[in-house]
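Attaching the record inline, Q. Sequence:
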Amino acid sequence: YTELQKSDCYSEYEEDKESDSEKIVRITKSTLGTSASYIVSGAGYTADYVLFLGGGVVVGLAVCSPVIALEGALDGNGRASGECIGRVAGHVAEVNVKNGMGKKAYSETRSWRCSEVDHISKGLRRVSQCFSRRGEHIKAKKQLNFILKDSLLKQCLSSDERKVVEGELEELERKLAL
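Structure, as predicted:
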């Protein structure tokens, strides 16, 4: 929820200007974090496939043992046994990888892939402060709640900026309780 376009409080929204050095730090941090997240996630998925494919071969041998025995007794060429083991192993690996280390690593390193969004939050807080100064505390509260609930902002907001937003929200709730 934003009231930006319906009010003169819109003019309060202004993103903080970054110096060149701050911009370089932000871009470097984002690039390195994203790269590291994908490397860790990729290693997790690779480990999943190696572990589960190996386990899948063992399960495949067990499940396909009647086919292997029958083919051996008939002096077969091993093609049916190989296909059976491959299909079972592939299925076991596919099922287990969906909930494995790679998925967990990707989820756990999500914050590493975040862009810096504090400047957006600060701009939205200025809009909220404008509403608050005008006595429109409910609109101000909605603006702050937007910052805390928006999926990108919620995930990527720095802990310091989150504390500031939460503090301003608590102050507004006290005003509304009066």
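The radius of gyration is 28 Å. The first helix runs from residue 20 to 63.

More tomorrow.
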